[in-house]
Amino acid sequence: MDLLLSNKVAIVTGASRGIGKAIAETLSAEGMKVVLVARSSAGLESVAKSVPGESLVMAADLRESDSANQIVAAAIEKFGKLDLLVNNAGATKRGDFLTLTDQEWTDGFALKFYGAMRLSRAAWTYLQASQGTIINIIGIGGWTGSAEFTIGGTVNAALMNLTKALADRGVRDGVRVNAVNPGSIATERLQTRIQTYAKTNNISVEEAAKRLPREMKIERFGDPMEIARAVAFLASPQSAYIQGAILNVDGGATRAL
Description:
Layout: E1 9-13, H1 18-29, E2 33-38, H2 41-50, E3 55-59, H3 67-79, E4 84-87, H4 102-130, E5 133-137, H5 150-173, E6 176-182, H6 188-201, H7 205-216, H8 224-235, E7 246-249
Parallel strand pairs: 1-2, 1-4, 2-3, 4-5, 5-6, 6-7
Helix pairs in contact: 1-8, 3-4, 4-5, 6-7
């Protein structure tokens, strides 16, 4: 299927590694020009060399209130338009609710929620002009509460609501807004979780990597490219009738309606 993405322009946050890197590479392979955003300029430069198409590196901290405007302005200056915004940046701290600090809660919202909100606001008029798309990469933890994932689950739930609210406005303005909820994807972050699980249960990392999916009642961990391919489809005009959708790509981990 031709996804009809050639010569379109995308901003991808959290693009220096993991899911964001896979998304940037996939969109570039489909012919898009990509603006690569993350805090690590070294990581971004490496990704810029790996993508087949034209790219722009933007090292920025999305926790800073003006970074969104700067990123969008740079994209427009370089490419003259904007067709897609992928809000992927943001990691939140796991831990005991009673010991998580106010600052850790603030950081969780500052990067993932406020970063996505501000970028969506800054990009909106340009996406309206191009009849473009926003895709929020969120996470299945927003569907169900978990004692060790209080910050992440709360931030994810807020982002899902924001997705629906912006999609509602997007019907009027001609901007499609959807979200992808990854499950347990084989990234560096998941590797850290596996190591913690191994230590807690006094087992090897190899055994933990086998046991954890079984505990989650899934067959295996996902691959970042499986998220990237879902994003490419949602970005495409081929999915033009999909609006306000929240797609779980989680190997069946989410069993709620």
